[in-house]
Amino acid sequence: MELRPIPAAHWADWYEKELCAAFPACECKPLGDIRALAEAGRYEVLGLYDGPALLGYATLWSAPDWPGYVLLDYLGVTPSRRNGGLGGEILEKLAAREAGRRTVLIEAEAEDSG
What we know:
Layout: E1 2-5, H1 11-22, H2 31-39, E2 43-50, E3 53-61, E4 69-77, H3 86-98, E5 103-106
Parallel strand pairs: 4-5
Antiparallel strand pairs: 1-2, 2-3, 3-4
């Protein structure tokens, strides 16, 4: 398995089939915003692949004011591969990729507020 960028030409498909299907609409950043941030060098869309098959994904959002940090904006695993440890695999690969370069900030939200 390899963590590598999802080609920008595949983002619309990833966005609709994976991100918007897995996250509440109010949590989904517009694809146009993702593209604009990526064009500015501030956003990465990474996929965990087994050959050509996308198994999961992680997106990283950076800010010029915080060069040593990056926010894990989204983390997901494709529906057919959930609950098999791939989310942890993605986190391990991210940690190795960013070691000595940037600190990965992670936030979590409760499904239900209160």
